[in-house]
Amino acid sequence: MITKIFTKFFNLFLGYPLYLFSFFIPRNQKKIVVGSHTPFNDNSKYFFLFSHKYLNDYKIIWLTNDTNVVKIVNNLGMESCKVRTLKGIFHALTAKYYIYSFHLHDINFWTSGGSTKFNLWHGIPLKDIAFAIKSGPSAKLYDEQILFSRLMRPHIFVRPNYMVTTSKLMSSYFSKAFRIQKKQCLEFGMPRCEILSWDNDKIIKFVDTYESSKMLTFIHQLEKYKKVFIYMPTWREEVDFLNNAGFNFEVLNERLKKDNMLFLFKLHPFTKLKNINLNEINTYSNLLVMDTEMDIYPILPFTDCLITDYSSIYYDYLLCKEKEIYLYPFDYDHYVSNNRDLAFDYKTHMPGLHLKNFDDLLNVLKYSDHKFLEDQKKIKEEYFSENSQNSVKQLCKFIEGI
User: Fold this and answer.
1) Which residues on adjacent β-strands are paired with residue 98?
2) Which of 8, 80, 191, 359 has the maximal Cβ count within 10 Å?
3) Residues 36, 42: Cα–Cα separation, whole Å
């Protein structure tokens, strides 16, 4: 702990002079650095992969702290290097454009002075985000009155030059949450969602080109089942939420076996569990806990039904063709009181059949309930404008226009 604190203050001691210095460095108008809060994932990843098609005369570099990611990207014939190397610092200091999906910390805040910053974010919010958060543990992070927060996390308080959003409704919300003007919001859609509307053959080709053989094998395994459910709950601080959700894995597995169905658990990477061994869940024939590091977006179109609660994956899944969505908000009152306030009314902005307990979950496995399809279609139209297609192509054209 002492070593970690010392390292943090040492970085700050070197970081602030570097940040001031970065404002005076000439920046290459044809250089883009890209990064993400996850190793090689999310909207940043898809912008990076697809942008090479549209920006042939630009130098586009993925910056990361992960040595393995550097190898993956370089093996794809693209350029990547570690942030905290001379090469990484050089590129970060001289690139005109920063593209990230959380905060400047995704790349390097200390080298960002004078750059043009594009925040792609990482989903459509039902939960309040950034400076819109008024309750829960995260509220303190964005409190400008707390000097310690501003000193230790300066990247949080830097406003992006542009925010990529999906509709007028989202532009209105993001402009408030990040304290920018609506004209700085670009309604191009999320790069990671482009793949959701593709035909399966095109997705398979993408996976074969850019992903591991492990993912390709996994997708082909899904084809053996009559129906594939995927459970994607939002992140919670509680370490016992699967128990609180009432899961009986043996009963669930027996129900799935009867009709040759599969139930996938895709938990948030930061999820911590108590009294539940994920490896034991994998011993059941029709239950599978997915690797949290595996990119879910090429896999979603090969599933049939999403079960979630307050996660933004709900909105993304609306873009998949002919899918079902059910909601399992078993801890709604506790969640909104202790974790995060909601930006929009839950039932109005996330319509669907609400499963109150594990018995409800078992029952919905037996049949398909389509009575909320029209409501979900309306939400899709409200949250995704007609322009929010080919997002990477639009963003690349915008960058060229600058």
Assistant:
1) 33, 117
2) 191
3) 7
| Local structure of residue 326 (DSSP, 8 states) | E
CB atoms within 10 A of CB 228: 19
Cα 296 from chain centroid (whole Å): 10
The pLDDT profile of the chain, 402 residues, written as one tens digit per residue, is: 556 665 666 577 888 999 999 999 999 999 999 999 989 999 999 999 999 999 999 999 999 999 999 999 999 999 999 999 999 999 999 999 999 999 999 999 999 999 999 999 999 988 889 888 887 777 777 877 677 777 788 888 899 999 999 999 999 999 999 999 999 999 999 999 999 999 999 999 999 999 999 999 999 999 999 999 999 998 776 667 788 888 999 999 999 999 999 999 998 766 676 667 778 889 999 999 998 888 999 999 999 999 999 999 999 999 998 899 999 999 888 888 777 778 898 989 999 999 999 999 999 988 777 778 889 999 999 999 987 779 999 999 999 998
Domains 12-122+159-189+388-401 and 197-383 share a fold: yes
Residue 256: its H or E element: helix 249-258
Q: What is the largest CA-CA distance in the chain?
A: 67
Cross-sheet strand order for the sheet of 305-308? 287-289, 261-265, 227-231, 305-308, 324-327, 353-354
The CATH class of 197-383 is alpha beta
Decide: pTM greater than 0.85.
Answer: yes
Question: What residue spans define the domains of the chain?
Answer: 12-122+159-189+388-401, 197-383
What ranges make up the beta strands (E) of 179-321?
A: 185-186, 227-231, 261-265, 287-289, 305-308
Per DSSP, the residues of 124-142 read: --SB--GGG--SSGGGGGG
**For residue 132, what are the contacts with CB-CB under 8 A and spacing of at least 6?**
173, 176, 177, 343
Residues in the chain: 402
Q: For residues 341 and 136, what is the distance between their CA atoms, to the nearest angstrom?
A: 8
Q: Please choose, from the candidates 111, 86, 94, 157, the residue with its C-alpha nearest in 3D space to the C-alpha of residue 17.
A: 111
Quote the DSSP letter at residue 212.
-
Written as six digits, the tokens of 123 are 């989903």
